[in-house]
TrEMBL record:
CDD domains: GT20_TPS. It comes from Pantoea phytobeneficialis. GO terms for biological process: trehalose biosynthetic process. Belongs to the glycosyltransferase 20 family. Pfam families: Glyco_transf_20. This is Trehalose-6-phosphate synthase. SUPFAM superfamilies: UDP-Glycosyltransferase/glycogen phosphorylase. The lineage of its organism: Bacteria, Pseudomonadati, Pseudomonadota, Gammaproteobacteria, Enterobacterales. It comes from the Bacteria. Gene3D superfamilies: Glycogen Phosphorylase B. One of its GO terms (molecular function) is alpha,alpha-trehalose-phosphate synthase (UDP-forming) activity.
Length: 475
């Protein structure tokens, strides 16, 4: 049976996404290839050091990056260049040839590590747009393994991809995949419309193409959370202690606001919504609070400082205008909390405001629902532009650009009776159970294996057609 090589940018256990990878590999076995989180000066004539560790359930392969690869290739090219393009914010994108050069080297590090350890029958699962070039680099190194790439981020609409300088180079690598996965049907449709407009494609099925003689399949695979992981978080002492502290010190009507600290988070609109809420419903003065979690670790280094400063100014103005000596409407916390502590904060919050302007999925929304008390659950308010909105039946869906709509949703959420909150929570949990992380992995990997059958079937069909043509020529 073929093995699994899962490739991600960072092996850190601090994020929900990394915890999902660990859970998937613990169940399926395989090799996790990742940057080790360290930087190291590397001589041009010396091979990059690779650290292989054999584990009880899965193995790991890690390596360092140079400072240029991390700062220019990753922080600059990926987060100041590609990230805005994929999130429909080309006005924020900044590209340079120096950053591009380091981005190439960053991907070469992954490709060489994989090429050195991959067995011929391994399937290779690349995580996200950071590593698009590694696919072509692996093909150039001679790897013929099945390779799948999954986009955790949205795929740009229209001709947004072609606005990236040197987009052809990225596209050529992307088209070397056997399977490309997306969070939502909208993201996949954006890709299909773009690829058919940019390349000469032969469509062999609804999501199967032949491009440059290579078969490429696409699919939609919504990322889910690991419910066992959520249960472990709830069982921890840190979670229980944090929940008790929050319930003892925060208002009953606490509205949780968190997620990534970036330009797509929509945080200023959320804070504006609180101002609208207080003006429309003065009875909330003194007994509600927006709890804004804004750990620098939840953002990207190039933008975190500026965004934090802007948020501090907005929150300070809000508290100065509407707060009292005993109460402030917004609590802005930059402290980093463990995943166990976050679970306690989530569980104690009456409402979760998850309203990114654009998001591939938003696992925070799913984790908030999963750690709620079914007997007295909170209410989820979710952006219509988060991938999770496609299948989270039971959430209040809002336009994240509309503070008035967000304020109305908060007011509604705080007034929903217990029986309806329980009903909404049950519907949400049904979807989370149906689309957990293991179902996500199983669906993607099954289709990655199936792509080999596609190729065999198409080749067989081509041989039949050729034989018939030869027969006619003979006569």
């Amino acid at each position: 049976m073929s093995g699994l090589i899962l490739v991600s940018h960072n092996l850190s256990r601090a994020s929900t996404l990394s915890a999902l990878y660990e859970s998937i590999l613990s169940r399926n076995g395989g090799l996790w290839v990742s940057w080790d989180g360290k930087t190291q000066a590397l001589a041009a004539d010396m091979p990059r050091p690779l650290t292989f560790r054999q584990g009880h359930k899965f193995d790991t392969l890690t390596f360092p990056l140079t400072r240029g690869e991390r700062e220019q290739g990753y922080q600059n090219y990926v987060h100041q260049g590609l990230w805005p393009m994929f999130h429909q914010r080309p006005d924020l994108a900044r590209f340079s040839q120096d950053d591009l050069s380091q981005y190439r080297k960053f991907n070469e590090a992954y490709a060489r590590a994989i090429a050195e350890y991959a067995m011929p029958d391994d399937v290779i699962w690349i995580q996200d747009y950071h590593l698009i070039p590694s696919v072509r680099l692996m093909r150039d190194a001679g790897l013929t393994n099945r390779i799948g790439l999954f986009f955790h981020q949205p795929f740009p609409a229209g001709q947004g991809f072609t606005a990236i300088p040197d987009w052809q180079w990225l596209a050529e690598s992307l088209l070397c995949c056997d399977l490309i996965g997306f969070q939502t049907s909208q993201d996949m449709n954006n890709f299909l419309l773009w690829v058919e407009s940019a390349f000469r494609c032969e469509r062999l099925g609804g999501t199967l193409f032949r491009i440059h003689g290579h078969l490429l399949r696409t699919g939609v695979y919504p990322v889910g959370i690991d419910l066992e992981d959520a249960h472990c978080l709830l069982a921890s002492n840190s979670c229980s202690y944090m929940e008790e502290q929050c319930r003892a010190t925060l208002p009953q009507n606490t509205i949780l606001s968190g997620g990534h600290l970036d330009d797509s988070a929509g945080l200023p609109y959320r804070i504006s919504a609180v101002e609208v809420l207080l003006r429309s419903h003065p009875d909330y003065v003194g007994n509600m609070m927006l709890l804004q979690l804004a750990s620098p670790l939840a953002g990207y280094a190039p933008r975190t400082a500026g965004l934090s400063h802007d948020l501090e100014s907005i929150c300070g103005e809000m508290n100065g205008v509407h707060g009292t000596l005993e109460w402030c409407p917004v609590s802005y916390l930059t402290k980093s909390y463990s995943r166990e502590e976050q679970a306690g904060i989530y569980r104690a919050s009456r409402v979760a405001l998850v309203t990114p302007l654009m998001a591939g999925m938003s696992l925070m929304a799913k984790m908030y629902v999963a750690v709620q008390d079914p007997a007295n659950p909170g209410v989820l308010i979710l952006s219509q532009f988060a991938g999770a909105s496609e299948h989270m039946d039971g959430a209040l869906i809002v336009n994240p650009y509309d503070p008035d709509a967000i304020a109305d949703a908060i007011h509604t959420a705080l007034r929903i009776p217990l029986s309806e909150r329980q009903n909404r929570h049950a519907r949400l949990m049904k979807g989370i159970h149906r689309q957990d992380c293991h179902g996500w992995a199983a669906g993607f990997l099954a289709d990655l294996h199936e792509s080999e059958s596609d190729e065999a079937a198409v080749m067989a069909g081509s041989l039949v057609v050729t034989a018939k043509m030869v027969g006619r020529l003979r006569y």
